[in-house]
Amino acid sequence: MPNPIDEITQEFERAAQARANGNEGQARVCARRAAGIAIRDYYTRNRIPLPSRSAHDLLNLIKEQTLLPPDLKLVADHLTLRVTEEFKLPLDADLIAEAKSLCDWLLKH
Questions:
Q1: For residues 38 and 12, is the Cβ–Cβ distance under 8 A?
Q2: What would the CATH number be for the domain defined by 4-108?
Q3: What is the pLDDT of residues 11-32, one digit of tens each?
Q4: Are the C-beta atoms of residues 39 and 104 closer than 8 Å to each other?
């Protein structure tokens, strides 16, 4: 079974490369996938059944967790926002940095 930390690190490396190439949309996808891996790992370690493997579904689910700090619930919310017709986020946020903070918390708890 792959190591979740290695998988998360790879996704953040892909996110950084996508951003460096000017592809912010792909960077967001990678950040979201990294968060999904961390959530799956968190649920597995805490013996919480996984209702879905979709990163998007898991981000919506983790927002309901009472143990998750409010600022990280906001991060999960940002990671599930729809982009505008111009493929821009409706807010000014660095989803890679936000996803890293969410992943760090999940891996420590």
A1: no
A2: 1.20.120.330
A3: 999 999 999 999 988 999 999 9
A4: no
